[in-house]
Every structure is written in C-alpha cells, then in structure tokens.
Amino acid sequence: DIQMTQSPSSVSASVGDRVTITCRASQGISSWLAWYQQKPGKAPELLIYDASSLQSGVPSRFSGSGSGTDFTLTISSLQPEDFATYYCQHGDSFPITFGQGTRLEIK
Amino acid sequence: EAQLVESGGGLVHPGGSLRLSCAASGFTFSSFWMHWVRQAPGKGLVWVSRINSDGSGTSYADSVKGRFTISRDNAKNTLYLQMNSLRAEDTAVYYCTRDKNGPHYYMDVWGKGTTVTVSS
Prior knowledge:
The complex is a heterodimer. By secondary structure, chain A is mostly beta strands. Chain A contains no helices and 10 strands.
C-alpha cells in the first residue's frame, strides 16, 4: 500500500499569511494526488486534484504542485474560512490512502 | 446539484450487522463509480470500499475485506454498504462519496455522513 505522510501535523497562522502544507508518498504516484479541506462537523470538500488542478468553485488562493513523491498545497493569503483540517489523498491505485491531516489554526 | 444522503447508521453490538444506504440525486448515478470513506472520532479519513458504475467491480480496504460488502441499485439511485461482524474499531462516521470519474480516483461529492457506533 502507498503511505501518505503530511507535514506539519498542525500549523498556526494569521489572516493574510501564506501557508504551505506538504505531502509525501511512499512511492512515486506521478501527479495523481488530491487535497481536501474539512471543517469541524462537516464532510470533506475536494480542493485540488491531479496535484495542481483546481476543483470547480474553489478560490484561486488555493494551489497545488508537485509530482512523483513530493507535493505541496499553498494558500496564498489566508482567509478566516480557511481555518480547517487539510488532507492529501493519492489517486493512483487501490487501496486509496489519505495523509493523517494538517490542522490549520488561527494564531 | 449533485447530492448524497446517507442513512442506516446507529448503535450495534460487537459481532452485529448493519446496512448503510446512500441516496443519490442531481446526477446520473449509473455513470459514476462510488466509494465509502470513514472517519473514527477525532481521527483522519480512511477509504473503505469502491464500486464501479455497473456494480461489476469492487475493492475493499484490508481492514474490512470479508466483512463488508458494497453494492448498488442503479434503478433506485442508491449505494449500499453491508457491514457484518462489526468490531469496536469500526465505530466511525461513514461517508458516501462520488468518484470524479477521471482515469484516477478522487472524490468530488460527499454526503454528510452517517454515524456507526459499535459497543456493548
């Protein structure tokens, strides 16, 4: 199985900050990676797929990059509604696996 | 607008069974692969199972293989998860999700989830 490891596990930031979250796959997955946002008590929402493609309706301050084993999610200017937990997920094969999550908190 | 609504969760004793349902609307259900994903209290997301669009192909996480069965009724626009031999570690919110239907596996529509609690 492909293991997904996110870092950091949590990060504190302020409104307006630029934040980067990383995700590493245990083996190469080309660009087959997604990022999700989950707010407390809610279902996750797809932000990014194929490592860098923005899902319809997602603000352009979210961007993704990377290929192979190393990937990043960047939020260019944090907004109050962005404080949430973020998960990466590989889309390469079954079983699908998620990273452990990165909690983005208000500083 | 695409929508998924799960039902069937509840409290069950260890070793018991439960069947989850997911009613789909707002899209052509029979054209999409579907997944179940679960989240234990305070924990991360775990993929459980997937089924292809006509129900002829399925995959399972090792942790549920042989105990859970995914199925679908395209005439009723409904996805199912039959869960047998339930264990305490199966306690979680179970989400029904739609596959984005590209060549790779992403989930672009999620239900609100249904809670399964396995406890004596």
